[in-house]
Design brief:
The complex is a heterodimer of chains A (about 100) and B (about 725). Chain A is an alpha/beta fold. Chain A has 4 helices and 6 strands. The longest helix of chain B is centred in the N-terminal third of the chain and has 83 residues. Chain B is rod-shaped and about 220 Å long. The chains are: A alpha/beta (about 100), B alpha+beta (about 725).
């Protein structure tokens, strides 16, 4: 699992590459700390290369979302694959996140 | 030891019985023989008595007859003599006439008492000569024949005597006193030759070596074949001469008192009977001596022969009894050995049977193979074998038949079975397995026993069968479309030649196809009429619709119905293998064990991936399943065990045709995830809790989720996903 943070003026983008399972959730959470710090900006979670996500990953997504909501920012989830979309649907995440296709 | 003892006592009983038979036989034989011997003895004794007495009487009668003649002739001449006493010349004429007219009288004299005058006429040859007895040397007046009649005043028979002057003849003299009116006294005599008597006694033999004796009044022996005894000895002398004093003295006394009778004497070193009788008027005695040997010779000889025959007979009886007892003992030993051998064979049979798989069905949990085997053992231990086991999803199996029977065959069978196990443990090719077993067996095969064997390796995933035959009967392929003999290259049996090359063959089995293997005990099962069961009946009893157990039972029943009560001569072994699936196993199990370390989650992902592959799931479903598993397992890893302690999670996956099941179990603290409240996904962002999604996902992805806490303290979470 790899996390790349790209910081622009008003947009913080995190590219999530690989499988986000329980075993890596802690390190992913740490890697995404810069996003939480700038939660007043627009936060983009780029899921183009995210293959898989477990509930621990969903928790991280939810944490980011809550932080943005608290600081007046916004979260965009970009390019999720069908499998993950299904999980989002299952968990009601589709209602909580703005999903974008690039 | 106990057996030995009972054997000994049995033999002793038999020997005692034999001894009693021998003793009874001996007693009966001896008693009979003794009775017969005594009876015969008495008959022979009576016969001897009769013969001897008859002879004595006959002889006596002859003597008396002669005496009568002589006495009559003399009496008739007495008157003439009395008239002529004074005229010696006339006297000679009278005596000469007497001699001439009486052949038995061989001499005669008239001896005067007052004068010395005794004219004598006697016969010599055919002429009658005369002489005078009145010689100086002779002194007739002192002779017994002269004195006795005068003394007695009557006729007197002299003691027999040898007349030396008149020609060595045994003689006796009858003399009568004569007296004329003038007072002249004389003695008138007639000499009688007793040669006829001696001759008669010599000739007349009542038994071949019997002899007669004439004994005088004084006991003198007068006639006897032993001529030295004649006249010189008396019966009394014999008492000294023979050493049998007692007997002869008794006889002597009896003779002197004129008695008759029989005595046993020891004469000439032999036991002899001595019959005696006195002759009236003379006081002589006649005696016949008969060796006892001759009286009883025949019966003694027969007796001896009987004894010899009896000894031979009894010896034969003893020998026969001895051999009977010996053979009886041998039979008992054979019997004992047989029962001991049978006991040992039973043990051998037990050991042999314990070597082959006997639990059927052997793989009840497997859907890919259905197999069954049966051995119908013959009375005697045979050398049939079969064996099978599964290694790396391959069924290794063999069936074999050792040549011969009994313990040797069962030993070879045991060796063969061990070799099969040992060799096949690291060989997948039946050809190499067979070759290797063959080399081991042929190498040490000093008894020239061999084994026919069919060896196969069936890939349970594909139904691909590789096989190698070593001289065994070709198995039968039992398919829905009919039965067919599996094509086999016969090859040589195992143990015949080292470095034999065996050819491997292969065939693909379709699902449901059975392979029926058997030993020739099946096709060669004999009915009471010696008809063989044969392949035709075997084929008839094979049916592709039967499961293995039913098939073996059907075949067993068919053989039983055919053979009926006939004795089974050979082991009958059958092995039936049905291959059930040539695609995906009906049910496969996979297993994964993880430590309570969250870093092991990727391993779980790989495991689920493999299971999904086996179940041929699509990517989306695979991910969902993966997700559910991860939630369930990570839950255990993170919360089941106290922090820092080591624990395990056990994940079992069962892939079925229509479902996928995962069982996650751990030994951690009791926790029922299904009891957690349902997450509410309709809540808005502010209301939603961060966690609680894991078990929600599990429930949503899986069709059925159950939790149990097992008796041995395990949390068991079972998750089932139905497959379309």
């Amino acid at each position: 699992m790899e996390v790349k943070i790209i910081e622009n003026e008003n947009v913080m983008t995190a590219q999530l590459i690989g499988r986000l399972d329980t075993s890596v959730s802690q390190e992913v959470a740490t890697a995404l700390q810069p996003l939480l710090d700038k939660a007043d900006k627009t936060l983009v979670l780029d899921c183009k290369n995210l293959e898989y996500i477990s509930s621990s990953g969903l928790r991280i997504f939810l944490t980011v979302r809550k932080a943005a909501a608290a600081k007046g920012g916004k979260v965009i989830v970009r390019d999720i694959n069908n499998e993950i979309r299904q999980v989002f649907m299952m968990t009601g995440f589709l209602n909580l996140f703005e999903i974008q296709e690039s | 030891m106990a057996r030995k003892k009972s054997l000994d006592s049995a033999t002793r009983r038999a020997a005692n019985g034999g001894l009693i038979i021998v003793i009874v036989a001996i007693v009966a034989l001896e008693a009979t023989s003794l009775l017969q011997y005594n009876f015969t003895h008495r008959v022979l004794e009576a016969e001897a008595n009769k013969r001897a007495e008859g002879q004595l009487k006959a002889t006596e009668l002859q003597i008396l007859n002669v005496m009568d003649q002589v006495e009559t002739a003399v009496r008739n001449s007495v008157w003439s003599v009395e008239q002529q006493l004074g005229k010696p010349d006339s006297l000679l004429a009278i005596t000469t006439r007497l001699v001439a007219t009486n052949p038995v009288i061989c001499g005669s004299t008239v001896a005067l008492k007052d004068k010395n005058l005794a004219p004598y006429s006697y016969q010599e040859g055919n002429v009658i000569l005369t002489s005078s007895l009145a010689t100086e040397e002779y002194d007739y007046k002192n002779q017994e024949w002269f004195l006795s009649p005068i003394g007695l005043g009557s006729g007197y028979w002299s003691e027999p005597y040898f007349d030396e002057g008149g020609g060595n003849m045994l003689m006796t003299t009858y003399s009568v006193p004569v007296k004329d009116k003038k007072g002249n006294v004389a003695v008138f005599t007639a000499d009688v030759s007793l040669d006829w008597l001696a001759e008669m006694m010599d000739n007349v033999k009542v038994y071949p070596s019997s002899f007669s004796m004439l004994v005088s009044r004084e006991g003198r022996i007068m006639a006897c074949p032993a001529e030295t005894l004649v006249m010189n000895h008396t019966i009394e002398d014999l008492a000294h001469l023979t050493g049998d004093a007692e007997s002869f003295e008794g006889i002597n006394r009896a003779l002197l008192s004129g008695e008759s009778g029989r005595a046993s004497v020891n004469l000439e070193g032999k036991s002899q009977y001595l019959f005696f009788d006195s002759v009236d008027r003379t006081g002589w005695a006649m005696s016949i001596v008969i060796p006892e040997e001759e009286v009883y010779g025949e019966v003694n000889r027969i007796g001896r022969m009987v004894i010899v025959l009896q000894i031979i007979g009894i010896a034969m009886l003893i020998i026969i009894l001895f051999f009977m007892i010996k053979s009886q003992r041998k039979m008992q030993e054979v019997e004992l050995n047989k029962s001991r051998m049978e006991g040992e064979l039973q043990v051998a049979r037990g050991i042999q049977m314990s070597m082959i798989p006997k639990i059927f069905p052997p793989y009840p949990e497997r859907g890919d193979v259905d197999m069954y085997a049966a051995v119908v053992p013959a009375k005697e231990v045979g050398g049939d074998l079969y064996d099978f086991y599964i290694r790396e999803e391959k069924l290794f199996f063999c069936i074999g038949d050792v040549s011969g029977k009994g313990v040797p065959a069962s030993l070879v069978m045991a060796v063969t079975r061990s070799l099969f196990r040992t060799v096949s443990a690291h060989e997948k090719s039946p050809q190499r397995i067979v070759t290797s077993i063959n080399n081991s067996m042929a190498d040490m095969n000093e008894t020239n026993m061999f084994v026919t064997m069919f060896c196969g390796v069936l890939d349970l995933k594909t139904g691909h069968l590789r096989y190698c035959n070593a001289g065994h009967n070709a198995p039968v392929l039992v398919g829905k479309g009919g039965n067919a003999e599996l094509h086999v290259i016969p090859n040589l049996p195992l143990g015949v030649l080292t470095e034999m090359s065996f050819t491997e063959q292969e065939v693909d089995l379709e699902c449901g196809t059975g392979l029926f293997l058997y030993t020739d005990g099946l096709t060669e099962a004999e009915s009471a009429t010696h008809e063989l069961f044969g392949e035709e009946r075997m084929y008839k009893a094979l049916n592709a619709n039967l499961c293995s157990g039913e098939q073996i039972q059907a075949m067993t029943d068919a053989v039983k119905a055919f053979v009926k009560e006939a004795d089974q001569s050979d082991d009958l072994t059958m092995l039936y293998i049905r291959f059930m699936n040539n695609h995906v196993s009906e049910e496969t199990e996979r297993h994964l064990i993880l430590h309570n370390d969250i870093q092991q989650i990727p391993q779980l992902a790989d495991f689920v991936e493999a299971v999904a592959d086996a179940a041929k799931l699509d990517v989306a479903l695979t991910m969902s399943i993966n997700l559910a598993l991860e939630e369930a397992v990570s839950n255990v890893i993170m919360y089941a065990y106290p922090k820092g302690s080591d624990g395990l999670v056990d994940i079992e996956a069962i892939v079925r045709k229509d479902s996928l099941q995962f069982i996650v179990s751990d030994n951690g603290i009791p926790f029922d995830p299904t009891a957690a409240p349902e997450a509410d996904i309709s809540l808005n962002l502010d209301e939603r809790p961060i966690g609680g999604l894991g078990i929600f996902l599990v429930r949503n992805i899986m069709d059925e989720v159950t939790y149990t806490r097992s008796d041995d303290g395990k949390n068991i979470l079972t998750m089932t996903k139905k497959l379309a």
